[in-house]
Specification:
This protein has about 400 residues and is of the alpha/beta class. The protein has two domains: about 190 residues, Flavin prenyltransferase-like (Rossmann fold), CATH 3.40.50.1950; about 210 residues, CoaB-like (Rossmann fold), CATH 3.40.50.10300. Helices cover about 35% and strands about 25% of the residues. The chain is elongated, with a radius of gyration of 25 Å. The N terminus is likely disordered.
Length: about 400
């Protein structure tokens, strides 16, 4: 087992050490830390002295909601002489972004003359390095040799991007985009997962379907797809092989996303994907009705003062995908605190888990960043008070793991 792949012991698997060095791309590191917090990670930021000349520690402390680690504050008599060891033990992943040529050289040579490089030597989990520098410095044989050394030791060295550099020149040396760094972190965390979801095939649906009225109009709903993607992310981070079937556009993901539009398309995609799946999570808001007939062209307003549409029921996707061995998770978005109705729905649908939420509750309605849910299962109910959808998704993923463990 190579140096960077050793066991991380009892560390927090969602803990991420973020090493920030003195490059102009420091501002992207602030965005990276913010993205980590938003997705439910626990970042510990380590700043070098050069990094603090670009961005004050207070900025990272505010964004991460945690104290910042640096040479001036960590190794103090009233703190802990072994702060670098403790920091290395707390997290499951380390990412150095931006990584300057100077720090890369130190890492390759094993020099530990500051907190960041000392933590790197003490860290035993996977390390992601995002280089950034002038194109000539990046292409210099010494830098390429140092990057090759880190890669050979097991570090995940992200490629730089081409474009206009801070010096005004064009070339390769820009730090990888935050979305690419986040994708690498997610993939790394998932690779370390050891729970019941590790290796499980999970299908998740997201968004609201659109049922065509004519060539330009449709019947739909306001579902944003955020809850569905949050569940997909949470399952992927636990090592699941996720497929997301969605009506919405999504940013970069570590798993495949299949776009659909109507309830019929959703049903076809879900039945096909769920045929070999272990878990189906129906977070999508699938239309209950669709127009019996769709006009090929456009209905003209001038043709009539009134328009009557005849609607017919859509397919029940959850029932269509049912089969022995498939753990199904349903969602019940109710207009009001109708928990008893959600309990009856779970019994009627015959699903293992049902997630209830009140779409009329303040601040947690459709499209909001937060949610408040109750997970109803065979062993009782779990209420998750108002929290970010990533937090709710974590609770759902944990409930799924408990059901998988119970049925195995």
């Amino acid at each position: 087992m190579n140096e960077q792949a050793r066991s991380t012991g009892s560390c927090d698997p969602r803990g991420v050490l973020v090493g920030v060095t003195g490059g102009i791309a420091v501002y992207k590191a602030v965005e990276l830390v913010r993205s980590l917090v938003k997705e439910g990670f626990a970042p510990d930021v380590i700043l070098t002295a050069a990094a603090k000349r670009f961005v004050m520690p207070l900025t990272f402390a505010a964004v991460s909601q945690r104290p910042v680690l640096d040479d001036e504050t960590t190794w103090q008599p009233n703190r802990n002489w072994f702060g670098h060891i403790e920091a290395a033990r707390r997290s499951g992943v380390m990412v150095i972004a931006p990584a300057t040529a100077n720090t890369i050289a130190k890492l390759a040579a094993g020099i530990a003359d500051n907190l960041l490089t000392a933590v790197y030597l003490a860290f035993r989990g996977p390390v992601i390095v995002a280089p950034t520098m002038n194109w000539a410095m990046y292409e210099h044989p010494a830098t390429q040799h140092n990057l090759a050394i880190l890669a050979d030791r097991g570090c995940h060295v992200l490629p730089t991007e081409r474009g206009e550099l801070a010096c005004g020149e064009e070339g390769s040396g820009r730090m990888a985009d935050v979305s690419a760094i986040m994708a690498a972190i997610r993939s790394t965390v998932a690779g370390q997962a050891r729970g019941p979801l590790a290796g499980a095939r999970v299908v998740v649906t997201a968004g609201g379907t659109r049922e065509s009225v004519d060539a330009v109009r449709f019947l739909g709903n306001r579902s944003s797809g955020k809850m569905g993607q949050a569940v997909a992310d949470a399952c992927a981070l636990r090592g699941a092989q996720v497929t997301l079937i969605s009506t919405q556009e999504h940013g970069p993901t570590s798993y495949p996303v299949e776009r659909v539009e109507s309830a019929a398309e959703m049903a076809e995609a879900v039945v096909r994907a769920a045929a070999n799946a272990d878990v189906l999570v129906m977070a999508a808001a699938v239309a209950d009705y669709r127009p019996r007939e769709t006009v090929a062209g456009k209905i003209e307003r001038a043709d009539s003062d009134r328009l009557t549409l005849e609607l017919e029921r859509t397919v029940d996707v959850l029932s269509a995908a049912a089969r022995p061995g498939l753990l199904r998770v349903a969602f019940a978005a109710e207009a009001g605190p109708r928990l008893e109705r959600a309990r009856r729905k779970r019994a009627e649908k015959g699903v293992e888990l049902l997630v209830f939420n009140d779409i009329l509750a303040a601040g947690v309605g459709i499209g909001a960043e937060a949610n408040e849910i109750t997970i109803i299962g065979p062993n009782g109910e779990q209420h998750v008070p108002r929290a970010a959808k990533s937090v709710c998704a974590e609770a759902i993923a944990m409930a799924i793991e408990q059901e998988l463990a119970r049925s195995s």
